Amino acid sequence: MNCCVIGLQWGDEGKGKVVDILAESYDIVVRYSGGANAGHTVVVGGDRFALHLLPSGSVRSNVNCVIANAVVVDPDTLLKEIEGLAERDITLDGRLFISENAHLVLDYHKTEDRLREESLGKNKIGTTIRGIGPCYADKVGRSFALRMSDFKDLSKLKDKLRNIVEYKNKVFAAVYKAEPLSADEIFEKCKLYADKLLGFVTDTTELLHRAIAEGKSVLFEGAQGTLLDLDHGTFPFVTSSNSSSLGMPASCGVPAKMIDEFLGVCKAYTTRVGGGPFPTEQDNETGQYIRDRGHEYGTTTGRPRRCGWFDAVAASYSVTIGAIDCIALMHLDTLSGLKEIKICRAYEIDGKQTCFFPSNITKLSQASPVYETVDGWEEEITEVSDFHKLPAGARNYVMLIEELTGKPATIIGVGPKRGQTIFR
Ligand code: IMP
Q1: Distance 7 CA to ligand 1 centre (A)
Q2: Which residue has the least CA distance to atom 9 on ligand 1?
Q3: What DSSP line would sit under 71-99, residue for residue?
Q4: Residue 316, pLDDT above cutoff 80
Q5: Are residues 271 and 303 in the same domain?
Q6: 222 Cβ below 6 A of ligand 1
Q7: What is the Å distance from ligand 1's center to 202 Cα?
Q8: pLDDT tens across 348-398, in order?
Q9: Which of 32, 179, 265, 289 is placed for a possible disulfide with 251 were both Cys, Cβ 3.0 to 4.6 Å?
């Protein structure tokens, strides 16, 4: 059984916890998109792991981990993560495989990301400043791209870096009046990265096909969410990769028809970090209530997340384009204590109601949500492990989400820990 876990909103849906729980039953967990912009939180016992590049399955020492082609790898962050796990006696030796075709995020990408965002002022995208956009731009542009395989020939890498940094410095000086970066310093860091990471580098497409042919089970882990997908999200307020499930086959070289189940992860409400339209946003006391109870602050940047009601129009769109079979509904406990809860079941745009999400932001900005208001529940639910023992308000709310998205919620999150999960 191969499964793909994918976020149905604007990221931060709780995929880390879901993947960590499911990973127990899989041989391999694959991270297939984005880079260190992601922040997947896994809580094991009293320990909290914030993973940016390693698949969330990496905290389980019996699981093999793959970083596939379309991930952009910041070697500095990756090494810190590997070392952080080693300090907790979790080793990745012999079970981490990084695609030789994965592109490298280096200092000049992060500098470019920061300079561009600063120069855009109020028109900025609100990126994580992790160099993601500039790295993917270099990948598409090809001439200045570097991949994991470039660590194999350091003298060639030195020459390539000289050319790249010379070009980048010209742009930084001319456009942003910024200080130049040193190619030599970046090369020295690369020598260290090569030394520590080359042992993990391989052809991950071959590895995955061999494993599947041998009957091994693979869990594909999406980063960010469907609505941040470069082609199908709310462009330009998106990330620079195909973060929906549509990006999985392209990144891994594994066709979608080899996947048995697509599991969509969403929160029982909606959040978004950075700019862009957000029809059900509650920039008020309700939003603050959700932010406080749900600890809605970015794992990667610490920024407060924008919070709002569950948007069934947006979630259904993600279900449709992601071929989602079932849903993991996370953070249900965050909504405890609310007398009434709203759920957006349609948009009104230009006086007409629609249930199909317009990813084009000109249209989306004109959408006003059509809400249904339902009773909330008072009780804390973090210790409930049986769906039927949830308060009636919570059960009805889950069933309404199932009705509106047309998919069963087979996993329900009622707290951050592994055990605080209801399986149906
Ligand atoms: P970038 O991916 O750093 O270029 O940021 C582009 C947009 O995607 C910004 O609005 C970010 O806040 C958002 N974003 C990127 N990664 C994540 C994530 O893991 N969770 C939530 N939002 C993200």
Answers
A1: 13
A2: 127
A3: PEE-HHHHHHHHHHHHHTT---TTTEEEE
A4: yes
A5: yes
A6: no
A7: 28
A8: 999 999 999 999 999 999 999 999 999 999 999 999 999 999 999 999 999
A9: 32
For ligand 1, say whether the CB of 239 is within 6 Å of any of its atoms: yes
Q: Which of 12, 20, 113, 138 is an active site residue?
A: 12
Do the beta carbons of residue 421 and residue 411 sit within 8 Å? Answer: yes
Q: What span, in angstroms and rounded, lies between the C-alpha atoms of 79 and 362? A: 41
For residue 239, what is the domain's CATH number?
3.90.170.10
Same domain? For 181 and 263 the reply is no
- The answer to whether 354 and 316 are in contact (CB under 8 A) is no
Question: Which residue, by CA, sits nearest to atom 19 of ligand 1?
Answer: 38
Is 40 in the active site?
yes
- With a 6 Å cutoff on the Cβ, whether 12 touches ligand 1 is yes
| Ligand 1 touching residue 247 (CB < 6 A) | no
Integer CA distances (angstroms), 215 to 82, 254, 268, 407, in order: 28, 14, 35, 28
Does the beta carbon of 249 sit less than 6 angstroms from any atom of ligand 1? no
Regarding the beta carbon of 248 and ligand 1, being less than 6 Å apart is answered no
Among 154, 180, 199, the domain-final residue is 199
The per-residue pLDDT for range 185-233, each reduced to its tens digit, is 999 999 999 999 999 999 999 999 999 999 999 999 999 999 999 999 9
Specify the ligand 1 atom closest to the Cα of 303: 12
The answer to whether the beta carbons of residues 381 and 336 sit under 8 Å apart is: yes
Write down which residue in 150, 174, 199 finishes a domain: 199
Q: Which atom of ligand 1 is nearest to the CA of 113?
A: 4
**Residue 12 is among the residues annotated as catalytic for this protein:** yes
As for how many domains the chain has, the answer is 2
Ligand 1 pocket mutation, candidates 15, 239, 243, criterion most atoms within 8 A of CB:
239
How far apart CA 382 and CA 24 sit, in angstroms, is 22
Q: Judging by DSSP bridges, how do beta strands 409-413 and 421-423 pair with one another?
A: antiparallel
How far is the C-alpha of 227 from the C-alpha of 364, rounded, in Å? 12
Cα dihedral 14, 17, 20, 24 sign: negative
The pLDDT value recorded for residue 255 is: 97
Select from 137, 330, 325, 305 the least CA-distant residue to 245: 325
Residues 176 and 268 grouped into a single domain: no
